[in-house]
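Lab notebook, bench 4. Still working through the backlog of constructs that have no structural model yet. Next entry is a single chain of 464 residues. Request: give me the structure tokens for it.
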Amino acid sequence: MDGLLTQHRPFVCRILLTFALLLMGLPLGHAGNAVVQLEIRGAIGPGVADYVVRGIEQANAQSSQLILLRMDTPGGLDQSMRDIIRAILNSEAPVAAFVAPSGARAASAGTYILYAAHIAAMAPATNLGAATPVQIGGMPGAPQPPSPNKSENPLPEKNGDSGDAMQHKMVNDASAYIRSLAELRGRNADWAEQAVREAASLSADQALKEHVIDLVADDTADLLSQIDGRVVVTAAGQRTLHLDGADVSDVQPDWRDRLLAVITDPNVAYILMLLGIYGLFFELANPGFVLPGVIGGICLLLALFAFQALSVNFAGLALLLLGIAFMIAEAFVPSFGALGLGGMLAFIFGSLMLMDGSGPGHAISLALILGVALSSAIFFILIIGMALKARRRPIVSGSEEMIGASGLATEDFSEQGNVLVHGESWQATSARPLLKGQHIRVVSRDGLTLTVEAKDSDTKEARP
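Model written out:
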């Protein structure tokens, strides 16, 4: 048996490698000579970071010649950017960041990634820069990035607010980070810091002149041709690129990455959270409907998963929930609109404060916040209020409507006799004797027999 395994070991290893590549979603048949291409399109968030990091890890497992990272991004979240850069720095295979096609950009977080790559390239008519960190949940009057005419290491004023101090800390941290990447790759560190402190930008040709990038290429084929034979230093040491005749394998995001990218969109996560809260609220208010509770529970769990990946301000979340509670309370407690207005304002401010991360493309739309706040206020204050008023009205149909109805005794009786209720003659029982013509009130009903009693205010004697 041992001899049989030894004889077929290469075949078994090939099968295991094929199965591993299928699980990782990478193309087969190109191990060791493939150029693995990953795409960053749009804002960089947890979904994009997961896709790029796993793609780099899988390409390293394949012993690929090169990992080509094509970018067209306005920037994104700081943590997601750092996850991608960490994967690039630890990659044994060289990573080439390529801002393409023409008209693309590598702004903000994209600039950091470009500096971190072993090879930095841009297509004509592209640009990079504007790498100043910003606060997503900024309100009007929030601190702005330092202007070019200020000192290179601005310090907060002694009487300045904590927001200015925090902004300076963010800028200084980002400057040190991008400078360290520039020094590691031997690129222009002074301009890198300028891109952070002054939000400077460069075109492709200017970036090449300023030694910010390594080359300008028209397309992927031109890029591979220019870097063929180049020696780069990776985490595994020096690597010489042999790209003549190499196949370019595109790796697309799988369902997990696509789902993560969708639900970690702040607008989608915000809507999922509200659907979850409203669904559970209606299920608790109307037990037995089941569907609102099921949908609400699923949406709330997805929202919590998204919030775990995003940077969430829990003070904003608490304020948002308080606003919902106030709007619901307005329907139950007559406050002349004070609870409703306060709840709506708390809802809006909590929504604005909810996302506490930084990066373009990761803020909740103001139009969405105002629309949801207005519709929630109308629903909770008007519709639920009308439903509660309708619930307090007397019952006008069914057997329950008979309870409390008024009528007249049509004969004298002590225990059982006939009464007239709603113009209909009913058999009735009474614990006390009743006189003909005496006003009565229905206490209960058992089939076609009513239990009645004399009205307290009725002093009418029997008719002659």
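Notes after review: The domain at 2-130+200-256 is CATH 3.90.226.10 (2-enoyl-CoA Hydratase; Chain A, domain 1). The chain has three domains: 2-130+200-256, 266-392, 399-454. Flag for follow-up if needed.
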